[in-house]
Amino acid sequence: MTEVTGQHGKPCEGIAKRMPGGRLGRFVAPRMPDRTPDSRQADPRSWWWAAGALGLAGVMTMLLLTLAPAEVERPAPTPSVPPTPAVAGTATDSVEGFVASFRVAIEAEDVDFLIEHLHPVVVSIYGAEACLAFIQREVLRLQEYELAGTPTGPVTRTFTTPDPDGSVSLQTFEVPVSFDYQGTHYQELALLGLEGGIMHWFAECD
Q1: In 26, 42, 67, 158, which residue has its Cα 20 to 30 A from 13's Cα atom?
Q2: pTM over the 0.90 mark
Q3: Tens digits of per-residue pLDDT, 41-80?
């Protein structure tokens, strides 16, 4: 039996599986008996059968390749990243933004935010325990804390510290604010300053 091959010399298994019986024999002519028992010359018709079978196999292979849908490589979908929600009490590098965050921290009683954004110079002067007590005793009682005018600055201020140098000069902003404290309305000047690119507040923790 003559084996039918495709374009690259491999058996045309795809065609064979699609034909009834699943055999390649349908595309190959069976051997014809010799004219006489002593004759060694093959019947010429067998060559025509073989050539016809090979031609039919080639046509069907091309037809299947033509009809087969081309596989298109599609790009992998890009995972969507959910937007980061705004966190209450997040510090900003602007005076106005910090005042709004300061109010949110007070209303939420976010002591961590308030102590972390108290200027390091203040903590070095009064001590962490005294500053924490001041925040819990007075700052958390403020209500309706808001900007009440146009900030001015930066202005250089000198603070006396317990460091060996004895003093430090810092760039500060004077910020008009208003708030209620124990039933009384106040308008004051808050003092803010940048430290490490983040706004901090000043206070007298006594």
Answers
A1: 42
A2: no
A3: 545 555 444 445 555 555 455 544 444 445 556 655 554 4
Q: Domain total for the chain?
A: 2
Task: State whether 189 and 141 are in the same domain.
Answer: yes
Query: Can you tell me which residue has the tokens 């958390």?
Result: 140
Buried b (16+ CB within 10 A) or exposed e, 68-86: eeeeeeeeeeeeeeeeeee
CATH code for the domain in which residue 142 is found: 3.10.450
- Alpha-helical segments (H) within 138-197: none
d(CA 176, CA 198): 19
Cα–Cα distance between 122 and 155 in angstroms, integer?
A: 17
Chain centroid, CA 75 distance in Å: 18
Q: What are phi and psi of 62, to 5 degrees?
A: -65, -35
Range(s) of the domain holding residue 50: 1-32+44-65
